[in-house]
């Protein structure tokens, strides 16, 4: 599943499927990426089914990664090579992966699940409004991912703390400033 050939085949299949969907939308005079166009049964099958599969796969892969981190840490600890710093690093990695998993799920799953729900009830007004909101949630993951990774860099966190500490200490009460000015 993670071999370069499998990844290449997956990317090509997704691109071909999305290209076919785009051609279909254009020939049917549908506006691509609108809520109504994305709730067509063929779109649900071509777009949302792979998204659900990919989300489940991503969560599965991250769970395996987290379990490997924990297992590696416990083996190091048993061998006597584990330190308090390695425990803290493991917690940070696990927390970061957890945040990434939650952002991915919150951004992608509601839209896909709502599209399957719309197959049952049809594209009602409330479903279309909910789908529009889910489109906004879709932007959440790429918007917050860079911040998640930047906050993993220790130098960035230290400089950010220094920046806020510097600005916090530079503000003095008026009474303290006037006491310093008086002779």
From TrEMBL:
Q: Where are the transmembrane segments?
A: 7-26, 38-67, 97-118, 130-152
Where is the protein situated, by its record's location annotation?
A: Cell membrane
Tagged with keyword Cell membrane: yes
Q: List UniProt keywords, sorted A-Z.
A: Cell membrane, Membrane, Transmembrane, Transmembrane helix
The UniProt entry's GO CC annotations, sorted and at most eight, read: plasma membrane
UniProt keyword annotation of Transmembrane present: yes
Alphabetical list of InterPro entries matching this protein: GPCR_Rhodpsn_7TM (IPR017452)
Which membrane topology describes this protein? Answer: Multi-pass membrane protein
Please state every residue range assigned to the domain named G-protein coupled receptors family 1 profile.
1-149
Q: What is this protein called?
A: TAAR
What organism is the protein native to? Mytilus edulis
């Amino acid at each position: 599943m993670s071999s370069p050939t499998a990844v290449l085949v997956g990317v090509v299949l997704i691109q071909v499927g999305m290209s076919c969907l785009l051609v279909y939308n254009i020939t049917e005079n549908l506006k691509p990426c609108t809520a109504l166009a994305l709730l067509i049964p063929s779109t649900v099958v071509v777009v949302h089914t792979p998204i659900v599969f990919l989300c489940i796969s991503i969560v599965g892969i991250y769970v395996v990664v987290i379990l490997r981190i924990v297992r590696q840490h416990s083996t190091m600890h048993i061998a006597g090579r584990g330190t308090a710093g390695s425990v803290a690093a493991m917690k940070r990695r696990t927390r970061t992966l957890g945040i990434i998993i939650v952002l991915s799920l919150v951004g992608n799953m509601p839209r896909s699940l709502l599209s399957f729900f719309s197959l049952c009830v049809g594209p009602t007004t409330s479903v279309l409004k909910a789908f529009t909101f889910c489109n906004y949630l879709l932007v959440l993951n790429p918007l917050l991912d860079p911040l998640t990774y930047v906050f993993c860099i220790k130098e960035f966190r230290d400089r950010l703390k220094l920046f806020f500490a510097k600005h916090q200490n530079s503000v003095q009460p008026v009474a303290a400033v006037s006491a310093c000015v008086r002779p």
